[in-house]
Amino acid sequence: MKQKLTQKRVLFPLLTLLSLSLVLMLCLVGCRTTAYEVYVNGKQVCVVKDAGEFQNKLHKVCQEQAKATGHPVNVKDELKFKRVLVNEKAILADAQVAKIIARELKLVTTGAAIVVDGKPVVVVSSESKAKEVLERLKKGYTGCESGEKLVSAEFEQKVEINQKTVSTDKIVSPDQALQILQTGTDSPTIYEVKEGDSLWLIARRHDTHVVDIVAANKLKSERLQLGQKLAISTTSPYVDVVTVVEGTREEKIPYKTRVEVDRKSSSVKVKQAGKEGRKQVTYRLTCKNGSTVDKNILSENIIEKAVDRVIVKGERIVVASRGSGRSSGTLSWPIYGRITSSYGSRGGSHKGIDIGAKTGTAIRAADGGTVRFAGWSGGYGKMVEIAHGNGVVTRYAHCSKLLVSKGSKVSKGQVIAHVGSTGRSTGPHLHFEVINGGRHNNPLGYLK
Fold first, then answer.
1. Beta strands, E only, 168-234
2. CATH number for the segment(s) 244-316
3. Is the CB of residue 206 less than 8 Å from the CB of residue 223?
4. Phi/psi at 90 (5° precision)
5. How much is the pLDDT for 5?
6. Cβ atoms of residues 41 and 70 within 8 Å
7. Residues 6+ apart with CB under 8 A from 82
8. 402-434 pLDDT, tens per residue?
9. CA of 145: how far to CAs of 141, 149, 215, in Å?
10. Where in the chain is the domain with CATH 2.20.230.10?
C-alpha cells in the first residue's frame, strides 16, 4: 500500500510538468503565423503577410511612376518570395511597404537624356520636354535692345537628345534640368593668401561671395594669414549659348582740341568752343551667355560733323623770380594735350583731370598765387599746390621736376614744373585738380 502511494506521489508531478510543457508548446505554436520573406537580388529585405499584396503595391507604384514619366516602368532587380512561419511581430506593417519598395528596388524607365559633347548631363521624361528645356536655355539669352535684331543663337558645345533607360529617380523636371545646364558643376580652386588680401577682395576677384568662402573653408573669423590656402568654388555652365546680334544706333563723335601758338602772349585763350558730332553706326555683336565677346562695326554714317575746339597758347614765358602772386580770377590751361581721364571717373574717385603730354613738357600756373606745397606727396608723386585766394587752390601732380618751392609767389602762365610720371602713375601726364572752399570741383568748369 505504501509502495503504491509513493509511486503516485512521483508520477503526479511528472504528469503535471508534461502537461504544462504541452500547453506552452501549443501557446508558442499559436503565436506564429505563415508569412513570406522578400528577397531582392538574393538579399532578404523584409517579411510580409501576403506576397500577392506586396506585388499589387509594387504594381501600383510602377503605374504611378509610369503616369508621371509617360513611359512604362519596370523592376530591374530579381524579386523572390519564401514562405515561412514567423512571429507576427516580424511582419512588416502595410504602411511601410511603399518605403521598402522605394529603398530596395530599382525601377527603370525610358527617358530623354540631354548629351553635351558626348556626355549625358541630365535626363527628363520625354524628347519633347528635352527640346523645351533647350529652347528655354537659348531664349534666356536672345533678348534684344531697341534697334537690334537677333541673327543667330547656337550652342557652343555639341548638344544631342538620346533615348536612354534610366532609374526613375534620375529623371528631373524641366525646371531642374534648365538650372543644372545653366549652373554646371562646381570646380573648386585653391587660392593662397597674399599680402594685402582680404576675404572681400578675394571674393570679388573670383566672382563669388564672402559667405561662400567662409562656409567652404569653415572659417571661424575673417582674419587671414599669409600663405593660408582657401578653397574657392566657381561654377561653369554645361552649355554656353552664343548669340549674334545686329543693330543700328546713334553715337556721339567727340571733338578734338587744336592748339594755335601766339608767341606774343603768355596766356591761353579758347578761340573756338568744341562741339560733339553725331553718327549712325551699324554693328554686329557676338555674345556668350549674354556677355559681349566681340564687336564689329559694319558701317558708319556721319549725321553731323564734330567742331574742333581751338585754343590759342601763348609762348612767352614769365620768369619765376618775377612772380607777382596776384590772382586774375580765372584759370588758364596748365598744359595742352588730350584729356586721358576725366573728373569723377574711376567710380567717382578721380578728383581731377589727367592731361597727356611728353615727359619734360612745361607746366604753367593756372593763375597767380602763392605756392602752398612743393615736394613729394605719396601717390601724387612730385606735386605743386598753389593758393590763389578766395579759397581757390590748384594742384599739379606726377611732375618730373619742380621749379618752385613753398612760399614762392607765382604769376599766371609761369612755368612751375615739368610733366613726368612720378607717384602712382601709368605714364607721363599731368594730374590737375581745382579745390574751392575745401571741396574738389571739375577743373573744366574753371578753365578758360
1. 185-186, 189-192, 229-232
2. 2.20.230.10
3. no
4. -80, -10
5. 47
6. no
7. 36, 37, 39
8. 999 999 999 998 999 999 999 888 889 999 999
9. 12, 8, 39
10. 244-316
Reported as a pLDDT band with limits 50, 70 and 90, residue 196 is confident
For the stretch 127-161, pLDDT in tens is 999 999 999 999 988 888 888 899 999 999 999 99
pLDDT of 247 reads 92
C-alpha cell at 162: 538620346
The number of CA neighbours under 13 Å toward the Cβ of 383 is 21
Task: Identify the CATH homologous superfamily for domain 185-236.
Answer: LysM domain (3.10.350.10)
State how far the Cα of 197 lies from the Cα of 232, in Å rounded to an integer: 14
* DSSP state for residue 321 in the 8-state scheme: G
End-to-end Cα, the chain, rounded Å: 152
**Residue 41: DSSP 8-state:** T
> Do β-strands 257-262 and 309-314 pair in parallel, antiparallel, or remain unpaired?
parallel
Q: 317-448: CATH homologous superfamily?
A: Glucose Permease (Domain IIA) (2.70.70.10)
For the chain, give the percent of residues with pLDDT over 70: 86
| pTM score | 0.50
Cross-sheet strand order for the sheet of 257-262: 257-262, 309-314, 268-272
